[in-house]
Amino acid sequence: MNTLYKMHKILILPNLAGEPTLVGIYSCIQKIWKLTQSHLITQPLSEGLVPLFMDLRAQGITFESLYFVRGPGSFMALKLIYLFAKTLEITQNVKLYATHAFHFNENFPIKAYGNCYFIQADSTNQSNTHESQTLDKEAKELNIHLQSFHTPPQRKPFVLPDILDLTLFNTQLKPLYLLPPI
Predict the structure, then answer these.
(1) What is the pTM of this model?
(2) pLDDT at 93
């Protein structure tokens, strides 16, 4: 590694519908990865992700690893981020790490469709809900369920953490497509 360049880690968080995608740049400060820059992608990911990364490169921001959310969430955003990440892995030898979305929204429900939301086992007040269904094996391992609500639950947009906890991530990159095709 060239000592003129400081390596960074980048985190991409797709957000709730209508909220911008978040991109955080983390620098190692005293052996802790701290948020040093944040960017909002307000246009569609297909139009905003590549230009942002080109701007980062023009600013001399180099990175050897990319962290992202693999779900649950917007299928389109998950697919685009996954394809973008895999392209960086293949073309630039960037290491990839992923985790589930509940780490970045204080474990609040995430919209699936209609009145159904993804929840993590103890992330909601059961008195406001009915009928929870377990999804596939991987979702079961993560305690993620699909929950139908009588009234829309409180939701929180994703937030970039001030410190990137690398222990939350692993090399399981396949997006969590938890709903059956319609």
Answers:
(1) 0.86
(2) 95
Amino acid at 19: E
Q: Compute how many other C-beta atoms are within 10 angstroms of the C-beta atom of residue 37.
A: 15
pLDDT digits (tens, 9 = 90+) for 106-130: 999 998 888 889 998 764 444 444 4
Q: Kindly give, in sequence order, each residue whose CB lies less than 8 Å from that of residue 129, ignoring residues fewer than 6 positions away.
A: 147, 148, 149, 150, 153
Distance CA 81, CA 172 (A): 14
Q: Which of 17-31, 136-150, 156-170 has the lowest mean pLDDT?
A: 136-150
Q: Which two tokens stand for residue 118?
A: 């993804």
Do the beta carbons of residue 66 and residue 96 sit within 8 Å? Answer: yes
Q: Give residue for tokens 């023009």.
A: 58
The rounded distance, in Å, linking the Cα atoms of 49 and 64 is 17
Q: Cβ-count burial of 169 within 10 angstroms (0-12 exposed, 13-18 middle, 19+ buried)?
A: buried
